[in-house]
Design goal:
The complex is a heterodimer of chains A (526) and B (309).
Chain A: H1 8-16, H2 20-30, H3 34-56, H4 65-95, H5 100-105, H6 108-112, H7 118-150, H8 155-182, H9 186-212, E1 242-245, E2 248-251, H10 252-275, H11 281-314, H12 325-341, H13 344-348, H14 366-371, H15 377-398, H16 406-432, H17 436-461, H18 480-484, H19 490-510
Antiparallel strand pairs in A: 1-2
Helix pairs in contact in A: 1-7, 2-7, 3-4, 3-7, 4-7, 4-8, 4-9, 7-8, 7-10, 8-9, 8-10, 10-11, 11-12, 11-15, 12-15, 12-16, 15-16, 16-17, 16-19
Chain B: E1 2-11, E2 14-24, E3 29-34, H1 40-47, E4 55-60, E5 63-64, H2 69-75, E6 76-79, H3 91-101, H4 106-119, H5 135-147, E7 153-157, H6 165-180, E8 184-188, H7 192-198, E9 201-206, E10 209-215, H8 216-222, E11 227-233, H9 237-245, E12 250-256, E13 260-265, H10 269-281, E14 286-292, H11 296-303
Parallel strand pairs in B: 3-8, 3-9, 6-7, 7-8
Antiparallel strand pairs in B: 1-2, 1-4, 4-5, 9-10, 11-13, 11-14, 12-13
The chains are: A mainly alpha (526), B alpha/beta (309).
Chain lengths: 526, 309
């Protein structure tokens, strides 16, 4: 019997509705008494928290309406904070084991020798995990509804808060799924997922606190960068905030919705490429999406730049790093390039690995870009850089920010130099290391040293701040433009980095490769 | 029909499979033999579309594994050498999952599950949890999973490993039944006597090269230009050995302490019968005179060097 080949629409419908992987995982999740007991405990804790919180509200004597309102709002904030914490704790924990446990159990070969596309499998995993997190949110709805009844919040607050919590849950679920697809062990997947969740919490708290300052003190305007909505502890404060895009007030939750869905797609694509062989459709799709996503990264960077600059102006300070919105956005380009450089090791390092995916196939190949092999790293990095610069330019026009100037061009050149330097370093590390894993580790160690050691050393040797002009020792530090903000010498740092990159790459050609031992395939006995 | 042409797989400097070619027809049960690391699993994984070949290709009923791997996956059932089943899932739920994956219409799923459970003799375990099954039953459940979509090609990588003799016998019967159903079955195994019991075709792979391929009998006979003959006597084995040595068609007769003489014989069956008559006429008290049949193990040892073992 030949199984029918479904059409594109049917395939996509089946991926999201009635996904067999999700059904199977959900059956296992709900098996026995474990799930009802967990939900019962969760609800009991929520009710206890609500009762304790409510009894603390002054009810025995007359107080002003404003004070009562404030106390009831505090009650609502506490409940939402608890829910935010729950999402941060539950989403990564549920998802981190999803793929890695299948790999360890050796059931992935059975899955991928059947007509299952990686996307189908991964969406099924996300749906199963996310549905569980979502159920926890739904279960808490009657308790948070009391906040509306008592007057601490409006329905709009609650609904937007829940939407944001769901989206944050989706972001954490997606990133945990990606980690699960790349990790070799369950324990490392769980640790990495929680580490990312903590970093996410801290990072978005910084964005939320800086962005929130834009609207809290005045009290009137609710205009704020969308980044204020990304922190799970801040969701109670941000309903009603909006971002002005091309003269239109766009509610921030809509931007976060688009961002979360785009991020989820990127994570699923990355995980799918990880689970697919080289030269697969998934790899090509991921590479293409990577270029398109530079637009989102640029939007993020432009808005953060705008927000940081606004925040600096509001508190009456002239920050060293950003004296104007244009400068702040140029600086944001530099930071975005630094973020992009984190992926260089994954793209460029080569050497023996268990999946035998990262073989040395030369230093430059256009075909390697879409094949996903190390030879495609340099052209792909150049393409990513070009897309990022163009996207920044476009967003600056859309957000009516000052258009790129010489400072922006200098940062663009510096970004390219940074990517080139890190690429050269990856080639060199691959030459020196035995496996691709150790090459990446070596690269990471070198990057950490090159990033954090010089500032410590230089700051002990000079009183100059990083933004000092002239012949300061800080000019020896290739990343100083990120600390100093736009300076006339940014070009020199760009050239410095490019030279480093070329030297590393040439050195990699001269050094003989260490070892050629291929680690044994665990499952290969043939 | 499965047509494998010049299939190659290269990892850096290591050539794991070097241009393997063979052809199988419906109903063929193909025993794929090779030492550890010879390239069996790599070849099977390429046929299962889990590995992309470096060169060459394979076609199943005209569908190319490179051009349309998804269509190939709809036509094959793959059982790896090591596999895991899901926890907290019942046997019928496990098969229901695969039936959904293979897009068996919901109304037919129950019937299909019952059929494959019956075929694999697991009907009584329909509601058992998969982790509670014995190793042999789990192996059969995996085979049942491979059968839910009625595939045309079954790729079974070391299906008998870790099974007790009874479970092996049951598995052998099941594979024979699948062959009778007209499926092409590719079985890799280290247990050579078992393979010769139920395979009609055999392929021997050594360091990525297919050094022998064909019907089992043909492969075994093709290797011998002479026959090994064993004669047992109640008298002195050395005397018998001397008597045998007089026949110019007999080569290197060896007497062993059990009173047995083994020698290679290049004559016809008539000449062989004449030799036996002469030995009896000379007064040797022959109690056993037989041709030693070569088996797959002999063929395997002769064709391979064990270099990658």
């Amino acid at each position: 019997m030949s199984v029918p080949r479904p059409g594109w629409i049917r395939r996509n419908v089946e991926t999201y509705v009635g996904n067999a992987v999700a059904v199977r995982d959900y059956r296992a999740q709900l098996r026995g008494f474990r799930a009802p007991i967990l939900w019962g405990v969760y609800l009991a804790v929520m009710i206890l928290l609500a009762v304790l919180n409510y009894t603390n509200i002054e009810t025995g004597r007359e107080i002003s309406v404003t004070r009562a309102q404030g106390q009831l709002q505090g009650f609502y904030y506490t409940m939402m904070g608890f829910l935010g914490t729950t999402v941060v704790l539950v989403a990564p924990g549920l998802t981190a084991t999803a793929v890695v446990s299948e790999r360890i159990r050796r059931s992935l070969d059975l899955v991928f020798s059947s007509p299952v596309e990686p996307k189908y499998f991964l969406v099924g995993k996300i749906v199963a995990s996310y549905r569980y997190s979502w159920m926890l949110l739904v279960l808490s709805l009657p308790i948070t509804a009391t906040c509306v009844v008592l007057g601490g919040a409006t329905w709009q607050d609650v609904i937007v808060g829940y939407i944001l919590l769901s989206l944050i849950g989706l972001i954490l679920t997606s990133v945990s799924l990606l980690i699960s697809a790349t990790a070799a062990k369950v324990v490392s997947a769980v640790i990495q997922s929680y580490a990312i969740a903590v970093l996410y919490f801290i990072g978005t708290a910084v964005f939320a606190s800086t962005g929130a300052m834009a609207f809290v003190p005045g009290g009137g305007s609710r205009e704020a960068p969308f980044t204020v909505c990304l922190n799970p502890a801040a969701v109670a404060f941000v309903p009603g905030t909006y971002t002005v895009i091309a003269g239109t007030n766009v509610p921030n939750w809509i931007i976060v919705l688009v961002l979360a869905l785009a991020f989820t797609k990127l994570c699923v694509l990355s995980a799918a490429a990880t689970l697919s062989p080289l030269d697969s459709g998934e790899t090509r799709s991921l590479r293409l999406h990577g270029l398109l996503y530079m637009a989102i990264l640029a939007m993020f960077g432009s808005m953060v730049g705008q927000g940081l600059s606004g925040f600096a102006g509001m508190i009456g300070a002239t920050p060293a790093a950003a004296s104007s919105v244009g400068d702040a956005v140029s600086l944001a380009l530099g930071w975005c390039a630094l973020f992009l450089s984190l992926f260089v090791a994954h793209l460029a390092c080569y050497g023996p690995d268990q999946g035998r995916r990262y073989q040395d196939d030369g230093w430059f190949s256009w075909r390697g870009v879409w094949r996903g092999s190390p030879s495609g790293a340099l052209p792909y990095l150049a393409m990513l850089w070009g897309a990022l610069v163009l996207a920044f330019w476009a967003w600056m026009a859309v957000l009516a920010l000052p258009l790129p100037d010489a400072g922006f061009a200098a940062y663009a050149a510096w970004s390219l130099g940074l990517l080139l330097a890190y690429w050269g370093l990856a080639r060199l590390a691959s030459r020196l290391a035995v496996t691709v894993g150790s090459a990446r580790l070596m690269w990471s160690a070198a990057v950490v040293l090159l990033t954090f050691l010089p500032p410590v050393v230089i700051s002990t040797m000079t009183y100059d701040p990083p933004s000092a002009v002239g012949h300061s020792m800080w000019k020896l530090y290739p990343l100083w433009p990120l600390l100093a903000g736009p300076q006339p010498d940014t070009w020199i740092a760009a050239i410095e980095l490019a030279v480093f990159g070329i030297v590393f790459a040439v050195a990699a050609c001269w050094i003989p490769r260490r070892g050629s031992r291929v680690p044994p395939r665990v499952a290969n006995h043939g | 029909m499965l047509e494998v042409r010049e299939l190659r797989k290269v990892y850096g400097t290591l050539e794991a499979v070097r241009g393997v070619s063979f052809q199988l027809n419906p109903g063929d049960i193909f025993g794929f033999i090779g030492s550890n690391g010879a390239g069996k699993t790599t070849t099977i994984r390429m046929l299962a579309t889990l590995l992309e070949p470096t060169g060459g290709t394979a076609r199943l009923n005209g569908v190319d594994i490179l051009k349309d791997p998804m269509q190939i996956r709809r036509m094959i059932g793959y059982m790896p050498d090591f596999f895991g089943l899901y926890d907290d899932v019942k046997v019928w739920e496990y098969l229901d999952f695969w039936a959904t994956v293979y897009r068996i219409p919901p109304k037919q799923r129950g019937g299909v599950i019952d059929q494959v459970l019956e075929l694999t003799n697991l009907s009584g375990k329909r509601d058992a949890f998969v982790q509670s099954l014995s190793r042999g039953m789990q192996q059969r459940l995996c085979l049942a999973k491979c059968l839910v979509h009625d595939p045309e090609l079954l790729l079974l990588d070391e299906p008998a490993s870790g099974l007790d003799p009874r479970a092996r016998a049951e598995l052998k019967e099941l594979i024979l039944e699948l062959g009778r159903m007209g499926k092409i079955v590719v079985v890799s195994s280290h247990i050579l006597p078992e393979l010769s019991d139920f395979c009609n075709m055999v392929g021997i792979i050594e360091r990525g090269d297919l050094v022998g391929f064909g019907p089992v009998k043909q492969i075994v006979q093709g290797l011998r230009t002479t026959r090994a003959i064993s004669v047992r006597t109640l008298g002195e084995a050395n005397d018998l050995s001397d008597a045998v040595a007089k026949d110019p068609l007999a080569a290197s007769p060896r007497a062993n302490p059990e009173g047995e003489v083994v020698f290679d014989y290049a004559g016809t069956h008539e000449q062989q019968a004449d030799l036996l008559a002469r030995l009896i006429a000379e007064g040797h008290r022959i109690v056993d005179f037989r041709e030693e049949h070569a088996d797959l193990e002999d063929v395997f040892l002769k064709l391979t060097t064990g270099a990658v073992n």
